[in-house]
Structure formats: structure tokens, C-alpha cells
Structure prediction request, 330 residues.
Amino acid sequence: MAQAEAQPDQNPQAVHPLVQRYLEYVRVEKRLAARTVALYTLDLERLSAMAARVPVDLLQVHSTHIRRWVAHMHSDGRSGRGIALILSGWRGFYTWLGHQGIVASNPVVDVRAPKAPKPLPKALGVDDAVQFADFKSDDDAWLEARDCAMVELLYGSGLRVGELVGLDVVASHTARGWIDMAAAEAHVLGKGSKRRSVPVGQAALQALEHWLQVRGPLGTLGPDMVAPAHADAASALFNGRNGTRLTPQAVWQRLKRRSLLSGLSTPVHPHMLRHSFASHVLQSSGDLRAVQELLGHANISTTQVYTRLDFQHLANVYDASHPRAKLKKE
Prediction:
């Protein structure tokens, strides 16, 4: 039987005596766990193998070597987190060599692993988003009307949760935001104290009209509510039961509860509805600049993450529908 081919990371030569001494040091003197020592062993075997392929002695390794090996590991598909753990093992080895007076400098000290790609923002599928927006809970009429209006604004206009709770019933020179029902527009104060206007859909307008009827006119109190502590609470579009302006944390809690009651498989939070808004508008229109304006992003690069969501949607459609997307099983 032919001998199995050695893995690229494996070192066919004997373990370097200094590596053996270091591993004995971390095992006996530092009393590291056996699992940690085993991982250090693998990392240093990898280092020895890479140095042997150059070839360069372990004591002559420079930061340029380390960076080249990091690039190789990354191109081979190793994650940034995995590379960071390997570098940590190497860095500890050369730190120990420095303390022993064996090397003058640590070649790993200024080398960092590649940054992990930013995860895609979580967005609901269209069907789930519509199911969530259409859901009617068994809460009393006051809570249901308020929560429904909040969901419609978050998903229908892509508002941030801070912009949502900052809305007032009517426009004023002190208002952070308000809804112009006649023009079907929301005027909000976003990040960086930048104001923007976004359209409000018909479903959101109807939900808002119903909420305002249940809530009552400006300054009046709903059922079980006590007098607001200050004028800001009375002018708020969305109040809590105690009459004060609703907080972002309260919105998060209400949406999480609502998503569980509606039967969705994942808890919904306000920013997920904003992501869903952006993703669904982009899927339908393909207009990235328009989505940037609607979201209030100062830089188009911030909005471009939604093109990845859009491609993911297209890829899923392709995989599910194209006859050549998957090979037939024998």
C-alpha cells in the first residue's frame, strides 16, 4: 500500500529542540490544560514546517515570513479567527525565546490575522415579513394598535428604532420627528443629527390612523395611564402604559414577543425590520442609490451590504428553480 501523502502543515522532520523545551515549559511550569498544549504543539509543528519549506531556521524568522505564511493560510481558506489562534501560539513561543535571551525580537508581535468578513445583516423573507406585519395578537386594543403601527413604520419605512421612538404626534420646532399624514411622509432625525424624509405606505398610514384614534388626542391619557411627568411624554407618538415616551428597549421586547406569538422561527428585532425593508426594496427595484437615501446612509459603501443580501436571494432562487443548478443523483 502506498504511503499516505503528508499534509502541507505537517513537519516530517524531528521537532525542534527549542519547541520541545517551550512545550515542556507551558505544560509543567505554566500548567496549561492538556488540550491547550496539544493545540500549541500543532501550531508550532505548522510553524516548523513552513520555516523548513523556505528554508529558514526558526531563530531567523522575520515578520515578512510570518505575513507571507498568514497570507498562504488565508488563501487556503483558513478563517481569520483560526489564523488569530495560530498567531497567538506562535507569539507566545517567540515571547518565551525573548525572555530566554535567544532572540532579539518577536517576529509575530505586530502581525494580525485578516479581519473576518462582516456578517450579512439578518433580514426576513418577504413572506415572513408580511406574515409578521399582518399578525394580530390577543393583546388589548390599545397595545395591539400601538404595536401594529410600530411594525408598519419599521418595516414599511425602514426607520431606526431611535427614529421611531423619537417621533411626535405633531410637528414642532422641538420635535425630533413626526409623520405628515397628508403627504404620507415621515420626517426623522437620524444619525449625526441629519434629518431626512421617507415615504410612508398605505398600510402604515391606516395603522397610524387607528393608533391615533385609540391613543386619543395630544395630551390625553389612555386606559390605566398616569399623568406624564413632562411635556415630551405627552407629545410622543408612541407611549408606554405609564404615559412616558416608549424606549428602544421596550420596542425590542414587544417585537420579540410578537414574533414568537406569530409563529416565526426567529426572534424579530427593530433593526431586522429595517434590514428587511432595504433588502426587499433592493430586490424589487435594483436601485442602490434610492435605498441609500431611504436608509439615510452617508456612504454608499454602508448600503452595498444589501447587494450581498440581494445576490443571496437570487442564488437561492436559482438553486431552487433552475434545472441545471444541482447535479442529478445517480
The beta strands are 167-168, 177-180, 185-189, 195-199. The chain has 14 helices and four strands.
